[in-house]
Amino acid sequence: MIPRADLPDVLPLFPLPGALLLPRGRLPLNIFEPRYLAMFDDAIKTDGRLIGMIQPAVNSGERLHAIGCAGRITSFTETDDHRYMVQLTGVSRFRLKKELEGFAPYRRAELSWDGFERDLGRAEKDEAFQRDAFLSLLVRYFDVAELSTDWESLKEAEEELLINSLSMLCPFDPEDKQALLEAPSLTTRRETLVTLMEFALASGRGGTEGGLQ
To answer: Where is the Lon N-terminal domain (predicted)?
Structure first.
């Protein structure tokens, strides 16, 4: 856990549509573009090893969403063809204040961490969570979306891990992912997740074929 006082005012940004990182969540990345290889090389030299994951706003050119999530580089390997296979662990959401000009080949921005203090605390609880009803909906959604998973692990997972992992991994549209990111509490995120799965079932579109580990 990184203390609030140690969070930097400026971070490198990795704009990636559809990529959702949440506090205490884990996001694998395959980094191969030269500008992002340079970003990784610079980030790994800092004390916090932090990268700001953020989504571009849909149909807006270069504009970014106002809220992203900082991730700490917790493991990486370099491949023979000079790519990095990286794992980020979510630290805290942030609000974008302004992008900075400079000589770096990647985007950088001044950030505010205000309003996201709970991200730095312990795992959140969802007191209204009804696991049986949620898993019943999830089974139907996975069937329509042609997804597979380890159901025994899901049945035993703590509610934050379960809700956040599904929010990150389910094949929702980028704007839906942004809504999950911006949910003010775990309960609100679970309600949003349920709404998205119910909409997918009603429309008959679950997402793309794949598997959740």
So the answer is: 11-201
